[in-house]
Design goal:
binds FE2/S2 (inorganic) cluster; three-stranded antiparallel β-sheet; N-terminal domain of TfIIb; five-stranded antiparallel β-sheet; 10 strands
Length: about 120
């Protein structure tokens, strides 16, 4: 059993039902949280940390997407991000990226595939 088998995030079914999920993690020895979601059928994960004023994207609302469903949106000041790359599309932080976290799928379960990441229960 590989090391990443210890970092199961969720099943596809759970992600589909929840819309998006958060997981407490330690990344590079820093406690933080991750957001996980599916976009156009593909699962993505990012550190839940907006570069603008260092808030979680869902800090003001229980949502991480804008009303179109095409962009991630920080609920603090409304900055939007490309869900596939994490790149900010709003002028102040244009081009800066959310920290992406690699995922791997094994038998319908998603795992974090990052060396310096541990799930915190
Ligand atoms: S903190 Fe995210 S838009 Fe300002």
């Amino acid at each position: 059993m590989g090391k990443r088998q210890h970092n199961p995030v969720c099943t596809h079914q759970e992600l589909h039902e929840a819309g998006y999920l958060m997981r407490k993690i330690s990344f590079k020895n820093q406690p933080t949280s991750a957001i996980i979601f599916a976009f156009e059928g593909i699962a993505y994960a990012y550190i839940n940390h907006c570069m603008h004023m260092h808030r979680p994207l869902n800090c003001e609302q229980d949502a991480i997407f804008d009303e179109t469903g095409k962009y991630l949106r920080c609920s603090m000041h409304g900055f939007i991000f490309d869900p596939k790359t994490g790149e900010c599309q709003s002028p102040v932080c244009f081009g800066q990226r959310l920290q992406a976290l690699r995922l791997e799928e094994i038998d319908d379960t998603l795992y974090f595939a990052e060396k310096h990441l541990q799930l915190i229960d």
